[in-house]
Amino acid sequence: MRQTKLFTKTRKEAPADEVSKNAELLIRGGFIHKEMAGIYDYLPLGLRIIKKIENIIREEMNKIGGQEIFMSSLQERETWEPTNQWDDKEVDVWFKTKLKNDTELGLAITHEAPITKMFKGFLNSYRDLPSSVYQFQTKFRNEIRAKSGIIRTREFVMKDLYSFAKDEKEHLEFYGKVTEAYKNIFKRTGIGHLTYLTFASGGMFSKFSHEFQTITSAGEDTIYVDEDKGIAINKEVYNDEVIKNLGLSKEKLVENKSVEVGNIFTLGTRFSDALDLSYQTEDGERKPVFMGSYGIGPGRLMGTVVEALSDDKGIIWPEAIAPFALHLLSLGEDEEVQKYADELYEDLQKKNIEVLFDDRKEISAGEKFADADLLGMPLRGVVSARSLKENGIEIKARTEEKGKIISKEELINLLKPSH
Amino acid sequence: MRQTKLFTKTRKEAPADEVSKNAELLIRGGFIHKEMAGIYDYLPLGLRIIKKIENIIREEMNKIGGQEIFMSSLQERETWEPTNQWDDKEVDVWFKTKLKNDTELGLAITHEAPITKMFKGFLNSYRDLPSSVYQFQTKFRNEIRAKSGIIRTREFVMKDLYSFAKDEKEHLEFYGKVTEAYKNIFKRTGIGHLTYLTFASGGMFSKFSHEFQTITSAGEDTIYVDEDKGIAINKEVYNDEVIKNLGLSKEKLVENKSVEVGNIFTLGTRFSDALDLSYQTEDGERKPVFMGSYGIGPGRLMGTVVEALSDDKGIIWPEAIAPFALHLLSLGEDEEVQKYADELYEDLQKKNIEVLFDDRKEISAGEKFADADLLGMPLRGVVSARSLKENGIEIKARTEEKGKIISKEELINLLKPSH
C-alpha cells in the first residue's frame, strides 16, 4: 500500500478526552477512529490487524473442531427470560430497543441463550455430541464508563465459542483443548510470554472460571503470578484456601496489573436446564446437555498488544499481526532514490510481500522516521542517496536501535509472501 | 466436511409462519436459523456462501481502489441531525436505544453521515481526492413487515462503499467503475444473466439512482426490461418521458417482477454541505466534496440466488458461491463402498477440494439423494456397489437429469482446489 493512496494520516495529537495509551497511539497512527466515548471504527491499518488476529483465532478454533456460524444481534425477551437474564436488574449492561409494534428487543451482550435455544432444533441424541460452534459477532454492552480505549468498549466484535457435551467428563476434555488453543493464540499473536492462565470467579454463569490475563500496567485487573508454573490467581478469588488448593505458595506469587484477553467458562447445565436442551443417552434416558463458553475479543487483544508492547516512540506490532511486514521509506527528492524505491515496492507487491510504502514527497526524513516508529511495522527499510551508494536498502527492526544495509535480493529473501 | 460431524440437519418442513421460498429452503437445508420474524442466523453451510459472496465483492472493490474499514453500529444524534435524518418522522426505520445517562443512540441504518464526519479528519486537499472506502457491516432497519426471508430483514450485513471526488466529473468516472464492478459481481455470483442495470428513483439521498435488479417472481419490485440493451426501468419512474430520455421504446419493454440486489447513488454534496466536508482546490479555494454511495447485501444476494435458481427439488448453487464443490454420497452398508468413499474423501481433502461427504449410515439412498438436491451443490458424486463394479464414482451435475460413471482420477481433475 502506498501511503499517498491511504486515506488516513498520522497525527501529532490524540483527542483531548482520550486517556488510554492504546487509543491514543492507535488514533494518532490512523488505525482507529473514535465515533464517541467507548465506540471506535477500524480504519484500513487497524482492520488489517483485526483480520490477522481473527484468522489466527479461526485456525485454532477449526483445529479443535469448532464450526463457524453468525448469529443476530437483536434478541427477544423469550430467549433470555428462562435464565433470568432479561431483567435489567439482573444484567445491567443491556441496550434495549423496540419493534414498531412495541415489542421490546435487546442487543446481544453474548449468545449463550440463543445458541442453546437454536441447538434444540439440531441436537437430539448422544450421537450428536460432543459439538462446538463459534462466531465472530458484535456484542453490545451498556457500560457506565469507557476509559480503556479499545480494551473495554460499548460495542465490540467477540469470538465466542460454545461447546456441548454429554457430561462433565466429555466437557472437560474439550475444555482442555480450548485451553491449549487459547495458549496457541496468545503465543501466535505475540503476547504469549506476558499471558497467564488465571484462576478467577465465575462471572455471569458459573462459580469458577479460567481467564487468560496479560500483564500490562494499563490493566483493570490485579493478578498474582507464579512465574515458574505459568499460572496466576485473580485478586477477586485470591485467598489462602485458593492458594493452597492450587498448590502454590504465597511467597512466590507476584502482584501485577493485567488485562483479561480471554476467558473460558464451564456453564454446566444452567442454560440447558432453563431452556430445555437435552439429549437421549445410549440407554434411552433424557439428560441435559453439559455446556461451556469461551471468549476472545480481537479488538481487546489488539489494544492489549499496544499497551504491553509499545515504547515511547510508538507501537511495536508482532510480526504475525502487523498490518504490513515492511515499512519502506524513500528519503529525499533525489530522482534515482524515488525510482529505486518505486521499483522495489512494485517487485515486493508482485511477490505478495506486504509492504507499506511511504512514497510521500515534501515530508522530511525525520517525520518519516517518526511515523514509522509510531505505526510500528516489524521492519523498516530505507532507500536514500546514502543507501544507494552502498547499493542497497538500510533495514532496521522496530525493536533495534541500529540498522544495516543489505541488497535488494537479501531483503526479498528476508520477507515471507503473505499467501 | 463430514455430514456426521456437521451439527445442522436437513428437515422436511420449514416453520409454519415462513412464507418465502428462500427462507423455507434455506431453513430446511440448515443454511440459516430463524431467530424471529425478519431476523436470521447463518449456520455453517450458509456462512460459507456468505463468505464466498463477500470475497468476490471484496476483490472487485479492491480492484477499483476501495479501502476496507469497519464502522460502529451505534450512532449518535449529532451525526445525523445535520441532514435531518435523526428524526423518526423523516427516517422511519431507526432502532433507537439509550446510554445509561439517557443519551439517545441509534443503530446504523447506513453509514453516509458518520463516514462524511470521519473524513473531515483526513481529507483536506485536492491531493487527497478521489478516495473511496467500503465495509461489510451490519445495518439495522425497523421494518414494519418482514416476509421475504433473507431478502428483506431487520438486521443484515451490507457492503457499503462511499466515494469522495473533487467534482461531478471525477465522481462519474468512479461511478462508472463501480457500475462495471457490480456487473462483475453479479456475473461471478451466478445471476448476471438475470440482472439488469435499472433506472430508479433516488431514495433517501438523491433525485435519481441506478439499481441492479434480478428477475424473479418473488421480487417486491416491478421493472420494464429491454433485453437487447440489457437495461431496465423501475416502475416507480416508468413514464413516457423517462422511456424517451433513455432512448428506449415502449413496445420492446417487458414487465417483470424483480429483487434489487445492488444500488449505486450519486449523493452529490448533500452530506458534505450539511456536515462541512470540504477540500482546498489547486487555486486555494474551499469546495464541498462530491460523494457517492453504493450498496450490496450479501444475504439478500444469497436469498435472490435461491429464489431465482432453485427448482422443485431444492436449491441450485452457482459454482463460485456453493458451500462445497462436490457432494459426495456413500450408499448402503457395504464395507467396500464405505472404505472407498472414505479414502476418496480424505484424498480430496488433502488436495484442498471442498467436499461435503454424506457419510451417514442408516439413511436410505432416496433420502441421501433428496438431501443432495435440497442442499444444491453443483456436483454430486455417488459411491455405491454399482459404481464400484465399473470402478468409479457416478457423478451428476445438480442441473442435469442423468449421471455418468468416471474414475477417481477423472473426478480429481474435474475439481479445482479452493486455494
Automatic annotation (TrEMBL), chains A, B:
GO molecular function, one term: proline-tRNA ligase activity
Organism (species): Candidatus Nomurabacteria bacterium RIFCSPHIGHO2_01_FULL_40_20
UniProt lineage: Bacteria, Candidatus Nomuraibacteriota
Record GO biological process: prolyl-tRNA aminoacylation
One GO CC annotation: cytoplasm
Protein's name in the database: Proline--tRNA ligase
Catalytic activity: tRNA(Pro) + L-proline + ATP = L-prolyl-tRNA(Pro) + AMP + diphosphate
Enzyme class name: ligase
Domain called Aminoacyl-transfer RNA synthetases class-II family profile: residue spans: 38-318
Pfam family, one: tRNA-synt_2b
E.C. numbers: 6.1.1.15
CDD domains on file: ProRS_anticodon_short
Record keywords, A-Z: Aminoacyl-tRNA synthetase, ATP-binding, Ligase, Nucleotide-binding, Protein biosynthesis
Signal sequence interval, chain numbering: none
